[in-house]
Specification:
The chain has about 190 residues and is mainly β. It has one helix and 23 strands.
């Protein structure tokens, strides 16, 4: 462990009690349920650890084009639950995010549950639940070499897990059932 990591680990996490943009590396935790009229948590820095700490992030509606948690072009993000993201267009939204982890998060009642797009590579999604979302529980579009393990995708309006334009994604021990379309759809071109 390097000196900077040891110092940060010894500090108490920054407490979040309202929707915000995180602009500095470090440890953060929710200390209240959050409600938002737009994007709620925007992570605009690499090397961020966000603990949802059992709280709920609620949005303005599934047609809002808003994200519960939005990360664009960052690396080494860790989001841990338990915690719930609900009533957004995008529950947890990765756009060109690399080497990051989402664990034990529930995305329910959104238009899309978990979205992993635009060159997001080398991420781990483990122990998450996507249920009751209007479209797909987990969507990968242009995302490659990600690992999905022990997740649940159930009762989503379209597909449980939807893969499009990505390669090398691995799925281990996931459960997909009761979705409105197909439980697992792989629309990648045959190679």
């Amino acid at each position: 462990i390097d000196g900077a990591t040891a110092l940060q680990s010894s500090l108490a996490p920054v407490e979040i009690n309202s929707c915000t943009t995180i602009t500095a590396s470090g440890f953060y935790k929710l200390v209240a349920d959050l409600t938002s009229a737009t994007d709620c948590i925007i992570i605009d820095a690499s090397n961020v650890n966000l603990n949802l700490n059992g709280h709920t992030i609620a949005g303005p509606g599934t047609g809002s084009n808003a994200s519960g948690i939005l990360i664009v072009a960052e690396t080494n993000i860790t989001i841990t639950g338990p915690g719930m993201v609900t009533n957004f267009s995008f529950g947890v939204n990765f756009q060109d995010v690399d080497s990051s982890t989402v664990q034990s998060v529930t995305s329910t009642g959104n238009f899309f549950g978990f979205v992993v797009n635009g060159g997001s590579d080398g991420n781990l999604f483990s122990g998450n639940t996507a249920s009751g979302n209007g479209q797909h529980g987990f969507t990968m579009n242009g995302a490659s070499n990600n690992t999905f393990q022990n997740n649940v995708a159930s009762n989503n309006g379209a597909n449980g897990i939807f893969l499009f334009a990505g390669t090398g994604n691995q799925f281990n021990g996931n459960t997909a059932q009761g979705n409105g379309g197909t439980d697992l759809v792989d629309n990648n071109a045959a190679r």
